[in-house]
Predict the 3D structure of the following.
Amino acid sequence: MNLEVFSIGTSGMMPLPGRFLTSALVRRDGDLYLFDAGEGTQVSLKMLNLKWKKIDSIFISHMHADHVTGLPGILMLSSQVDRAEPLYIYGPEKLKEYVDQNRRILDMYINYEIIVVPVEEGLVMEKDEFSVYAFPLSHTKPCFGYCLVEKNRKGEFFPEKAEALGVPKGPLWGALQRGESVRTDDGRIVESSFVMGPERAGRKFSYITDSLYFPQIADFVRGSDILFCEGMFDSSLKDDAHSKKHMTAREAAMIARDGNVGKLCLQHYSPRYSKEELKILLKEAQEVFPDTILTKDRMSFDIPLKD
């Protein structure tokens, strides 16, 4: 079961050559889940040759232009292919008005159902094998971070234990792997736990953008394999960052460290930083959390299964 994360755009405030506005995408078993849709999102998706028809859901953090201006294009783009499934869009309360007004004013031809779901803290979407949770951030508008969390997988099946307990290979093995108990030919009951290892943890991806730093963020993202987090400014501009309710790269690293995440991927950079100057953000973050990288547009990350 593949789980991949793609950085679609990494710029904050305005797009730059080679740096589209903020967006990230998760591909799980072929289905796509988009987080924010800044200007240039559909261009970046095209460059990655990702099949936008497979976008199941879109999660919007907040109603600032650099996070939603790519959404109308995505909606119209999805009408260029046959789509029977509805598109779910999750986000703050104002999101439905934004989608409805764009559809009306632009007279969009939409050949599929769009369902806009207002977000509150907690569970926002549940599938058979994973869930998506929202948590509040502290910005100038209502803003949410998101975590995509896989449910625990069944433990490993040990066929040698089943054989030793006299369970013949075949349907009874399948029943044990489904968590059922079985009866052997001599009448003994063999419990699934006798031949199965402990449950294996699922994987976790977290997405944060546009927020003041506060320590509780680490609790929401705890244990993430990959954390995408804004690193808008360096520490010399801390006062400026806080006045605009953003965080510094160092503060993003503090969240990663305190949340015991696997990898921190900085994103949503201020346009004041050139490509070379972004190394200032990286250096500051790595002093606190060494496993930090500067995320670039169309960079991809594979999250392997946990044994």
About this structure: The chain has a mean pLDDT of 91.
